[in-house]
């Protein structure tokens, strides 16, 4: 309701006064969600930098021990910086990768993506969101494969998929609290799924899943009028995702249901499935907190395997699909070292505690341990033998070479685990081209948004222009690389340069399209790349020679190092 009020404001005055009024009269979680989503989608939102959510609603991004310390500091008027520990103990091997699921920047990326592409979006709000379904697949696929590489970096197996008829192996104790409404509920180990009153039965979930598998097996979806929608093409993944999420774009929600959204609620309620203890919603029911629970990744591996079944049912790419005639990638290398480390980062906790007029403001901060990496550049020498300028689409992937047992992935089963590192367009002159692309320019990532206080100070100063921070959707720049290992972790680095004149949906060849188009699209525009997301490693590869014989694709081996002495 509030989003509809704000999105229909055509004048600044209308939007600001409504926001000010409803801020005082609405649940603050609802207010923040509606305001952020309206700013992202409204024409009035251009130029606005939204403060980082972890400083607006810190309860959802830090643990309850920190919140209690902040309250004590406020009451005793003692400034403080409190070190945030990751959830759990070393007895729980999942804690080794908690730095990924609990990363404040990664959580902001996840929640902001869902604001950029809400499941409840109707085109009357402001146009069609291009390839929303496919973007859902791609962004969650990338979260899953990144999590798998983090697990391999920490000597853990890749994550197993969730199954409705088997126990949920990992429990989770969130150690987080609502600002109003008690603690987030915990879930013990090894529990069987139970029906959730008022939401769904486990049997309903199995039926929904089987109908989706049937659609993949048949190669078509049936819409609500009984018409057949073919999915055996590049657009099929978009349609499939619409029915799985499900979004308003689903052509038959009555038959296919809402597998993804219902699964999140089912998981969130397993601690109190029958409402016996009147527990509040679980972490899986909020986009801000969902990735904290290791089961989030098990759920998305389950979703991902459904998509893989569809993708691998499509015909493999041929030499003609992959080839860019006259263009050769002669060399591919890294300038700098692929090295990661942990650093401490402080963020403001003032919004975590209540205040009143006349009570002095106390400086309260949380200090969090987070992953970062040294700057590096991708370097490629590309030869254009066409005798004229051509536009190349540069697609860069990083793929783990070995599983946790040291078994080497072959090209067929390893390509599904590739991490998208960058995608950009470059005009190639006739002859040799030396292309250097800095890691911080990646179209997959975003920089850290300045703190709430520094945004207030900049606005008060009267000079405010921060276009690079307008979008919060994107993997944090510092997490572009997986953690790697002390002695180096083996990856394959792949560069595919494809024909930009075919790929590009826009005339502006070297535009960055808002900076994070690879996984977040471009606001108000068609997705800039015509090819399927993940091209050319998104389909089954029965014969590696098709890739080896294609001169516009280059694969080299690299190592990612982790420096555990860095502070």
Please name the CATH architecture of the largest domain. Orthogonal Bundle
Helix content: 25-40%
CATH superfamily of the largest domain: Di-copper center containing domain from catechol oxidase
By DSSP (H or I, 4+ residues per run), the number of helices equals 19
CATH topology (fold) name of the largest domain: di-copper center containing domain from catechol oxidase
Rg computed from alpha carbons, rounded to a whole number of angstroms = 24 Å
- Estimate nothing, just give the exact number of structural domains: 2
Textual characterization of the structure:
InterPro entries: Di-copper_centre_dom_sf, Hemocyanin/hexamerin, Hemocyanin/hexamerin_mid_dom, Hemocyanin_C, Hemocyanin_C_sf, Hemocyanin_N, Hemocyanin_N_sf, Ig_E-set. The protein has 567 residues and is of the alpha+beta class. It has two domains: 1-54 and 94-166 and 196-277 and 296-313, di-copper center containing domain from catechol oxidase, CATH 1.10.1280.10; 319-338 and 374-444 and 480-562, Immunoglobulin-like, CATH 2.60.40.1520. Helices cover 31% and strands 18% of the residues. The protein has helices at residues 2-7, 12-25, 28-41, 53-56, 64-75, 98-101, 104-116, 132-153, 202-218, 236-245, 253-256, 259-268, 294-311, 319-322, 411-414, 452-461, 500-503, 517-520, 545-548, and strands spanning 80-83, 220-222, 228-230, 327-335, 339-348, 364-373, 377-384, 390-400, 419-428, 431-438, 445-446, 475-476, 489-499, 553-562. The strands form four sheets. It has a seven-stranded mixed β-sheet. A three-stranded antiparallel β-sheet has the order 4-7-10, with no helix packed on it. Strands 2-3 form a two-stranded antiparallel ribbon. Helix 10 (236-245) packs antiparallel against helix 13 and helix 12 runs antiparallel to helix 13. The longest helix is centred in the first third of the chain and has 22 residues, at 132-153. The model has no long low-confidence stretch (mean pLDDT 95).
């Amino acid at each position: 309701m509030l989003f509809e009020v704000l999105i229909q404001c055509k004048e600044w005055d209308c939007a600001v006064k409504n926001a000010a009024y409803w801020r005082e009269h609405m649940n603050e979680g609802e207010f923040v969600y509606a305001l952020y989503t309206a700013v992202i989608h409204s024409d009035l939102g251009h130029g606005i930098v939204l403060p980082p959510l972890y400083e607006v609603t810190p309860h959802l991004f830090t643990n309850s021990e920190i919140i209690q310390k902040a309250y004590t500091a406020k009451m005793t008027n003692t400034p403080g910086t409190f070190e945030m520990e990751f959830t759990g103990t070393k007895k729980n091997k999942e804690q080794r990768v908690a730095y990924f699921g609990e990363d404040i920047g990664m959580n902001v990326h996840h929640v902001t993506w869902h604001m950029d592409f809400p499941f409840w979006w109707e085109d009357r709000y402001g146009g069609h969101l291009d390839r929303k379904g496919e973007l859902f697949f791609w962004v969650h696929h990338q979260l899953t494969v990144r999590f798998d590489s983090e697990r391999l970096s920490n000597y853990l197996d890749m994550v197993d998929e969730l199954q409705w008829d088997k126990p949920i192996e990992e429990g989770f104790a969130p150690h987080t609290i609502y600002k109003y409404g008690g603690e987030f509920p915990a879930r013990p180990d090894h529990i069987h799924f139970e029906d959730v009153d008022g939401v769904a039965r486990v049997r309903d979930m199995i039926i929904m899943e089987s109908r989706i598998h049937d659609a993949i097996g048949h190669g078509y979806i049936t819409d609500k009028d009984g018409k057949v929608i073919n999915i055996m093409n590049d657009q099929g993944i978009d349609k499939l995702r619409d029915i799985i999420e499900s979004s308003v774009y689903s052509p038959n929600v009555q038959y296919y249901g809402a597998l993804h959204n219902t699964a999140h609620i089912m998981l969130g309620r397993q601690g109190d499935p029958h409402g016996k203890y009147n527990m509040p919603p679980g972490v899986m029911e909020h986009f801000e907190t969902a990735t904290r629970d290791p089961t989030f990744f098990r759920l998305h591996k389950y979703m991902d395997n459904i998509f893989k079944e569809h993708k691998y049912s499509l015909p493999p790419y041929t030499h003609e699909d992959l080839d860019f005639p006259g263009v050769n990638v002669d060399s591919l290398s890294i300038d700098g070292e692929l090295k990661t480390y942990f650093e401490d980062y402080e963020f403001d906790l003032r919004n975590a505690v209540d205040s009143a007029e006349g009570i002095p403001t106390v400086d309260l901060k949380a200090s969090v341990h987070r992953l970062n990496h040294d700057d590096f550049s991708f370097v490629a020498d590309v030869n254009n033998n066409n005798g004229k300028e051509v536009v190349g689409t540069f697609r860069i992937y990083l793929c783990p070479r070995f599983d946790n047992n040291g078994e080497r992935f072959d090209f067929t089963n390893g390509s599904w685990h590739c991490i998208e590192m960058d995608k950009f367009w470059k005009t190639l002159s006739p002859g040799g081209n030396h292309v250097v692309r800095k890691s911080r320019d990646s179209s997959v990532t975003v920089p850290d948004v300045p703190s709430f206080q520094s945004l207030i100070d900049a606005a008060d100063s009267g000079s405010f222009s921060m276009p690079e921070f307008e979008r919060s959707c994107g993997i944090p720049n510092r997490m572009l690389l997986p953690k790697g290992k002390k002695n180096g972790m083996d990856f394959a680095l792949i560069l595919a340069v494809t024909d930009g004149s075919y790929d590009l949906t826009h005339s502006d060849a070297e535009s960055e399209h808002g900076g994070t188009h690879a996984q977040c699209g471009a606001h108000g525009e068609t997705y800039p790349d015509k090819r399927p997301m993940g091209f050319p490693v998104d389909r089954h590869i029965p014969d590696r020679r098709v890739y080896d014989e294609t001169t516009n694709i280059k694969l080299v081996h690299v190592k990612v190092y982790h420096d555990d002495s860095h502070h």
